[in-house]
Amino acid sequence: xxxxxxxxxxxxxxxxxxxxxxxxxxxxxxxxxxxxxxxxxxxxxxxxxxxxxxxxxxxxxxxxxxxxxxxxxxxxxxxxxxxxxxxxxxxxxxxxxxxxxxxxxxxxxxxxxxxxxxxxxxxxxxxxxxxxxxxxxxxxxxxxxxxxxxxxxxxxxxxxxxxxxxxxxxxxxxxxxxxxxxxxxxxxxxxxxxxxxxxxxxxxxxxxxxxxxxxxxxxxxxxxxxxxxxxxxxxxxxxxxxxxxxxxxxxxxxxxxxxxxxxxxxxxxxxxxxxxxxxxxxxxxxxxxxxxxxxxxxxxxxxxxxxxxxxxxxxxxxxxxxxxxxxxxxxxxxxxxxxxxxxxxxxxxxxxxxxxxxxxxxxxxxxxxxxxxxxxxxxxxxxxxxxxxxxxxxxxxxxxxx
Length: 402
Ligand SMILES: Cc1cc2nc3c(=O)[nH]c(=O)nc-3n(C[C@H](O)[C@H](O)[C@H](O)COP(=O)(O)OP(=O)(O)OC[C@H]3O[C@@H](n4cnc5c(N)ncnc54)[C@H](O)[C@@H]3O)c2cc1C
Hints:
Elements: H1 5-22, H2 41-53, H3 71-84, H4 92-105, H5 108-119, E1 125-128, E2 144-148, E3 151-162, E4 169-175, E5 186-192, E6 198-203, E7 212-223, E8 227-228, H6 234-247, H7 252-269, H8 276-304, H9 311-335, H10 352-359, H11 370-381
Parallel strand pairs: 1-4
Antiparallel strand pairs: 2-3, 3-7, 4-5, 5-8, 6-7
Flavin-adenine dinucleotide binds at residues 126-127, 129-130, 135-136, 160-162, 212, 362, 365-366, 369, 371-372, 375, 387, 390, 392, 394-395.
């Protein structure tokens, strides 16, 4: 990979002047609303301008509405939007998890059909991977896919399916060849929902929200056209998605920096900013975010060079997920008693500080647990003996390039 600093700086300037020329004042400092919430008119207009400017899904090839940015440059764009205080609208899992799989493994017709629908917000995806008996051991999944003429008929149960209640598409792993070894008989299918045999049941979690769901699938139909990467070849496609999930798009530090600034503002407001212990904690957190940022940039550089994320992605995931947990505790500590008060607004079951604390607990579970990441680093980076009990799929990512 060659890094052209002049080009990166040119991109930075381009984003800055685009924001100056196109800003919609009402959306400044407004965070993109949670899935399923109504968009204001101002936000809708902002989204329209972002699409026109090709600032959503900018890492896609130009022919599909992107700018062909590598993930390092994509990080620069996110940084600049964050610095200016304007939300860089994301298309959620459609953008971060499905589109890389479609781009790498889809045929030209599939790319032409599915990518624009993600970009303009028509298709909102959820991830149908985990099952009651298949989490870390993902290739043990039991959901069946039976080919019937030009369609696949899917029956089974998924769990922990984030945002399924707001989605109209699921990227679903199902077993289409039960006779094949467990990694070989899986297909990766884009399945329309919810009126297609889906029963979505929200699971209430300790944050008070219902971010994820149990999903029961009874003979859902999808055209064979919606099978990405070919029948029975889904494990390979799934690993493109999983690698991107672990890597987290390489821009996580942007949100962390936002939260850090909120806590600094709170410490100024409640007078704790002069407390040497608080100052030390804030300095620790800021330093850690910078390390996370450089780690992400290292990953971005690997991705830009066409290499699949390897054990480095696991190091990165441990770093940010364990940082987030400690930061969540720190945020509540600095906010003090206020962090225990439930807001009056009925839609909010927790205040901002409690949200940072509770929300941070899940990062060490999803996308491969902390224990699984340690296995990967132990076995693949440090050369330690394999865990004999683990025929562990999420810990053994398919890695064609490395
Ligand atoms: C907030 C959140 C959102 C999620 N969203 C989605 C989603 O949208 N779609 C989806 O498909 N899934 C989703 N998941 C599920 C997630 O991918 C799984 O929870 C995760 O893969 C772990 O699987 P499991 O829960 O079945 O735990 P298990 O795999 O049963 O693990 C239980 C415990 O055993 C440990 N363990 C397991 N295997 C090993 C091993 N080989 N070595 C050492 N320790 C091991 C684990 O670390 C863990 O502590 C989400 C999870 C969370 C928390």
